[in-house]
Amino acid sequence: MSKNKSNKNAKSNVKKDPTLYYFYSQGCGWCKKTEPLIDEINKEGKYSEILKLDLADETNRKIKDELVKKYNVQCGTPWMVDAETGNSICGFREKDILEKWANGEEIPQPVRPTGPPPKPPLMNVSKEEEDKFKKEYGEWLKKNDKLPNVKTADEILEMPRPKTEPPAAPTPQSSDSDLEKWAKQYDKWAKENDHLPNLIPSDQIIQRFKQMRNQQQGQQPPAAGARGQDMTQLNNRLTVLENKLDKLLSHLGVIVQPNKPRILNDAPKPPKKVAPKAVGKNVKA
């Protein structure tokens, strides 16, 4: 009896590997807000340890891809997931919500739109065009009546809107002469639409595009051992720049379709902590 009890106690004392994962990436603004909350929860020690996994590491990327495929989830960063159950949170949440998740409570996903709303018409259009927008927007609103803080069609039409269509955005592969031509077109458009708030000057936009282009091209190829990490950091920086540009284009009335994440195969199991080997001791045969 005592032997069985000791075996049960030994099994109960075996520490399980952490199954709560927090995936983050460098340059992710919401990750910077999330990480201190994760650190606080781990420090307080009320729940199982939340393992922080940087996606700059190839092994961590494969772990994430494996979990994304296993639980059929699409999420960038930050992403908090229980690898054992699939219970996860996509995006930033406050500390009390993270604690509920760490405690095993399922957190409902925020309500998402069924699709992008119809594009508002330009300023000074005919009443027929405004009525057409109101009808299309009303249909979209019925399908998305659960979304919080949604403006009415009349409120949108009362907001400042472009008088003319903005020039098509250049690509990261655009040459300096292409960027200069685009800047002239943008400056002309910005002058015609100076009633719009918070328009970004063309020189700042051009600088961002040049940085993105130079990062993609690269002056010298990285060493073989550092190539994976360098490309990940580059992709993270490009993602931040693309998000900022998407916000600008959205403000200008240009709808940008999000890219779907890629899923890799042959993902390894999560890494385990290995105790250091004893040194300097003789082992008897």
Would you report the number of β strands? 4
SS field, number of helical segments: 9
Percent of residues in helices comes to 40-55%
- Contiguous low-pLDDT stretches (5 residues minimum) are 8-15, 255-268, 278-285
Mean pLDDT, as a whole number? 78
The gross shape turns out to be globular
The main β sheet shows up as:
4 strands, mixed
What topology, given as strand order, has the largest sheet? Answer: 2-1-3-4
Distance from first to last alpha carbon: 33 Å
Beta-strand content estimate: 5-15%
Number of domains: 3
Structural class: mainly alpha
Run of helices and strands? HEHEHEEHHHHHH
Radius of gyration: 26 Å
Q: How would you concisely characterize the structure shown here?
A:
With 285 residues, this protein is mainly alpha-helical. Helix content is 47%, strand content 6%. The chain folds into 3 domains: 15-102, Glutaredoxin (3-Layer(aba) Sandwich), CATH 3.40.30.10; 112-161, no CATH class; 163-268, no CATH class.
Write the layout of secondary structure elements.
Blueprint: H1 2-12, E1 20-24, H2 29-44, E2 50-54, H3 58-71, E3 79-82, E4 88-90, H4 95-102, H5 127-143, H6 153-158, H7 176-192, H8 202-217, H9 224-251
Parallel strand pairs: 1-2
Antiparallel strand pairs: 1-3, 3-4
Could you explain the architecture of this structure?
With about 280 residues, this protein is mainly α. It folds into three domains: about 15-100, Glutaredoxin; about 110-160, no CATH class; about 165-270, no CATH class. Helix content is about 45%, strand content about 5%. The chain has a four-stranded mixed beta sheet with strand order 2-1-3-4, sandwiched between helices. Helix 8 (about 200-215) runs antiparallel to helix 9 (about 225-250). The longest helix has 28 residues, at about 225-250.
